[in-house]
Amino acid sequence: MLNVGVLGYGTVGSGVVEVLHTNRESIAKKVGQEIAVKYILDLRDFPGDPFEEKVVHDFDVIVNDADIQIVVETMGGVKPAYDFVKACLQAGKSVCTSNKELVAKHGAELLAIAKEKNINFFFEASVGGGIPIIRPINECVTGDVIEEISGILNGTTNYILSKMASEGSDFDSVLKDAQDKGYAEKNPEADVEGYDACRKIAILTSLAYGKQVDFEDIYTEGITKITDVDIKYAKVLGASIKIFGSSKNVDGKVYAKVAPVMIDSKHPLYMVNDVFNGIFVKGNMVGDLMFYGSGAGKLPTASAVVGDVVAAAKNLGNNVPVIWEQEKLTLADIKESAQRFFVRLSGDKAANAAKVEAAFGKVQEVEAGVAGEYAFITDAVKEGDFETKAQELGNVVSRIRVDF
Ligand code: HSE
User: Fold this and answer.
1) Among this protein's residues, is 200 annotated catalytic?
2) Which of 75, 145, 296, 369 is 20 to 30 Å from the Cα of 308, by its Cα?
3) 178-197 pLDDT, tens per residue?
């Protein structure tokens, strides 16, 4: 029998315990022996919970227990998760985590410790909830140079944008709904301001190119400025508004960003709605790949963690190599990357058309019956040039990148 310690008995941690219990027989067959949860670390008590007797409050009970070979970390946040995970790895225990903040910040270092100790640090659940994406990048598309990763990487914001578009719901009530369903972060600012998606694209980009991508270097824009009027225009265009985390390798320069984008029905991520995530990967040999599934929530995320536990159990005494060096990858300046922009200006067509043409040349006008506004889509323009011209216009109500 293999013993597991679980750090954090919140949404995901309790899901991990549930999955390990519900599927114990099929998991035992796959591993070749039973996997049992020995201890659960949490600050709280859980009276009445079927696993309440396994709850401990002292981390040392787990890290000092030689019978625990695998530790699951589902606490979230960097402190104290980083210290706990590092101590477990240094004690020779493999660690499986869903913690994207921890992985984005310290992944390279923790992988190096796991390699030195001949154990494993796995983090499939840190990106895309239940979607297998880390292992495919590490172990499957290794014959390719990855040219692009574009993903709907945050379930909460995709849920909010989908409900605003399909039901006309207001932002705050859908956010509350997402929190009630266990999708949102403890502080939902991480979701709605794009920080969560930023950490996820930083992880994927680090893995794609084998070097440390600092999330602080990634341009990040959330969805808080998207309104029902933007959605009205998108509908006229047959488009939907998503928030993408993306990185593109253009002639060896890697551009990364997180931002809302309008996509039309030809885009492979157009049908990714509600809490689902979709991740588009383009390799220079394989071409286009799509990964789709539940991007947040208790059981989908726990499923990915338990998949890692099974992998760790099958690889006791064997480090599965992951190329992610601590050396930093310097990202290219996104001001140099070009795309189309959807723009709304205050004032009618008569007040704006001539100065818009002077700034951007011929544009595609968009009419959605909104009084007192002039809306259009530019041709492809560099981000830096667009921002300069937008400032010069001086009356931009909103602007959203366009990918069609
Ligand atoms: N808050 C995250 C999301 C949870 O909504 O995607 C999964 O990482």
Assistant:
1) yes
2) 145
3) 999 999 998 999 999 999 99
